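User: Show me a protein chain along with its predicted structure.
Assistant: Here is one chain, sequence first, then structure tokens.
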Amino acid sequence: METANTETPLAQMRRDIRGWGLALIMLGGVHILLSGFLDPIWGGIIIVVGVSCLIIRQRGMYIVLGAMLLIVGIMNILFTQLGGWTALGVFQIGIGIHQTRKFWKHGTQPVTPCIH
């Protein structure tokens, strides 16, 4: 038997941003562990943004997430040869646009920080 989702849009937004925070912390760790192949500086930036998502779970974080993904996507397209990194860059730009649109989707939510 299915139960109706009773989670409020605000709770969904906070859960989504928290999920992004955890994923980014893990991805930043991978960047640092594979520093011979991936850029460890980006790893540190990714970890900082991830921790920020855990602390500041408000809709403005969608702009931060979107901007970060757009920048990384553009860098992957411009500074690598055509191939896998270019495809990843296009994917990152798409996800960045999607995250930025979530900011407008949650436009009626309070803008005050939610620190847990």
